[in-house]
Every structure is written in C-alpha cells, then in structure tokens.
Design brief:
about 150 residues; mainly alpha; 3 helices; about 0% strand
C-alpha cells in the first residue's frame, strides 16, 4: 500500500469516526431532551398532587362545617376516611422511593444510555485524534518523499 493510499485510507477512517461521533452526540442531545421533559412532567404531577391535597382539606372543612346530625355522621365519616386514604396515597407517591414513580425506571435507563453515549463520544474523539495525528504524520512523510 503506497503513501497516497494510506493517506486516503486514514482520511476515510477519520470521516467514519467523525460520523459515528456526530451520531452519538446527537443521540446524547435527544436523550438529554427526553430527561428534561420527563423531569418537567414529574414536577407537574407533584403540583397536581398538591392541588388534590388542597381539595381534600377543603372537603374536610366543608364536612365539619356541615354539622353533625346522626344522619350525616356515617356519610361524613366515610368521606373523611376516603380523604385520608387519598392523602396517604398522594404522600406515598410524593415521598416514596424513586422506583415508585412509573417513569423513574425510564429516566434511569435514559440516563444510563446517555452516560454510555458520553463515554462512547469520548472514545470516538480519542480515536479521531489518533487518526488525525497519524494522517498528519503520513502527509509529512509524503511531503518529505516528494521533496
């Protein structure tokens, strides 16, 4: 294989590496956008849960203010129990472990893939740098032979 062939080979190799690097970088950006959207959705869900809590408290206040006739006691107690269950389930969702949120697993997987792609991008950058250095050496060698 002659020097011009080696130069062309290394030029093509660097183009391929650059293409892979670009694809990995774009994938990383897309994953970052997904993570951002999922985090925003979790924030919105927490706000909605706070709204439900507020409604439950208001319901409790309404029940207390409605009076406590014997006929109302059973229905009031039932509504208060439902309210307590609602508040308890919402608190578990908000204060529970990350695995309890339905999209937490997806976020973790996306984050792991993002980390993997970041490592791959770094590896490809290192390979590209090596190929570019070898390409420069071959060009210098070619110029020395031509001179």
């Amino acid at each position: 294989m002659g020097i011009p062939d080696k130069v062309n080979f290394h030029k093509q190799a660097s183009e391929i590496l650059y293409s892979d690097l670009l694809k990995s970088y774009l994938s990383k950006i897309k994953l970052e956008e997904k993570v951002s959207k999922l985090e925003e959705q979790v924030k919105r869900e927490k706000l909605a849960s706070k709204g439900w809590k507020t409604q439950a408290k208001k319901l409790e206040g309404d029940l207390i203010s409605s009076g406590s006739t014997p006929a109302n006691k059973k229905s009031n107690k039932k509504l208060l129990d439902e309210k307590d269950k609602l508040i308890e389930s919402l608190q578990k969702k908000l204060n529970g472990t990350p695995a309890e949120h339905p999209q937490t697993e997806e976020i973790v997987l996306i984050q792991a893939e993002k980390d993997h792609l970041s490592n791959e991008v770094l590896d490809l950058k290192a390979k590209l740098l090596q190929v570019n250095q070898l390409n420069e050496e071959l060009i210098r060698e070619k110029e020395e032979l031509i001179s």
